[in-house]
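> tool_call: predict_assembly(chains=two)
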Amino acid sequence: MKRKKYGKRVLVFALALIVTAIYLSPVVWQFVSSLKKNEEIFRYPPTFLPENPTGQAYADQFEAGLFRALKNSMIQSVSSMALALLLGVPAAYGLARFSSRAQKPILFGFLVTQMLPPALLLTPLFLFYTKIHLINTRWAPILSTVTMSIPFIVILLRPFFASLPKSVEESARLDGCTMFQAFWKIMLPVAKPGLITAAIFTFIFPWSDLVYSIAFIRNADLWPMTTLINDFQTKYGTRWNSIMAFGICIIIPIVALYIALQKYVISGLTAGAVKE
Amino acid sequence: MKKKSGRRKRIIGRETKYLLLYAGPAIIYMIVLTLYPIAYNFFLMFRNMDTQHFLNHEFVGLETIKTVLSEGIVGMAAYNTVFFTVMCTAIQFTVGFLFALLYHRKIKGAGFFKGLVLIGWLIPMTVTGLLFKFMFQTDTGVVNYLLMQSGLIDRPVQWLSQGGSALWTIILANCWVGIPFDMVLLSTGLSSIPENVMESASIDGANRMQRFFYITLPMLKPVMCSILVLGVIYTFKVFDLVVVITGGGPVNATQMLSTYSYQLAFREFNFSEASVVANLMFALLFFIGLAYLKFVRSDEVMS
């Protein structure tokens, strides 16, 4: 009886291993292809391991402007994250701490805006940015991606702040803290895990963004990595080793963040699905 | 009682003030950069703003809407968007559920496997799109090679130059991204089912199937509902994948409402026509939202 159960367990384990491997095989293929020379990519039958692994495709990317695009992606993502946190965290706190008739409709508004597809806002935002002379600057995609992040922060952090006991804050105020000091010095440190999750996601949103940058920035010098790789493939559509290598470069920072802070990523993922 | 309500009234005034103090900036920001654009779309829909009338656009009634309809692409884009959304949501939910059930079995490394699979969700859609485009190339694509080797096809399939298979390639790519998301949420749901419920059911003689249909599924119902709704909302947004894989082609066969609206505004510089398509998206989303609210409400009444 026991042996049968053990055998079954091994079988399930093997199945899980195979399923996981099949699922991840596209990324592995991407990495393998990025180490090939382009002639090898066009060979038939395809080689499943690169014959002479080479970093040439990666080196080529530096000439294609990888560094500048990386810098642009960094500037956009960090600015977007900072602005979103600056606006979103106090909003989440306010909506958790103070009960008011306005609370429900405001929350509902944030929930709804999180669902809006960016393509819906493109035209009016384009005209708006043109009017205030922000078109063709980094600010256009930065300001736009923040509209995705703020509702996310509110939905993620509000339950967090609401679950922290009010008495902590009240005793701080009795000790002479102002309301703002209580928020800054007491509530924020306690909410740190939630804040880390918020920071990760509000960094990933703009990092992955294509739609706003492609629509609002015409100056190629300001393009983030996603926009540059899209442009690259329309120009040199068959240089697959370079395209795959560039793709790996876009993925690396996110995967690094994920490996370092995995539990925060998963908690952020499940937060969006919790019904209010 | 009376005294309490009187006190509360004063507090509400003060609390509202504080609430607005903290949340006000974010609210104003969202009004300017989301609510105002939505309203502006409605305004723009009845005007004729394009390159020739960029500054001197005027009210034209329903003319712009008629033009968009007469071009005949918007219907296809709407159909594609709905088809794409329904297919992706259904497939990624089913496969994600199977993944969740598999990883829920007591096996070594289940958490590690789950963590690995989640990478698929984290990769920016632009990169995923390029990767799938590469794999589904006619001559160099690894998918054609594997299918030929296994004897399923005898000649390379031109995945991306035919409308139907091109759309399915994008659906597959999107499902690949969506599966881990559904899997993680369903896993969380599965592990929230108390084990003693399962145990007592099996003591009562319920077999695996019965336990699944009479315990697991009913208990997961709220989670499943929110996953399906989120799935619809996220899938409906599709843009990056289409732009990268097909650009809406061949001949608009994979055009979605989002990409069509983008094309009208930023390729043809016809802003009013783009706003018509955007408003159609808004209307569809609005009905999805209404259906969801109604669904949730009737569910609450029932339980």
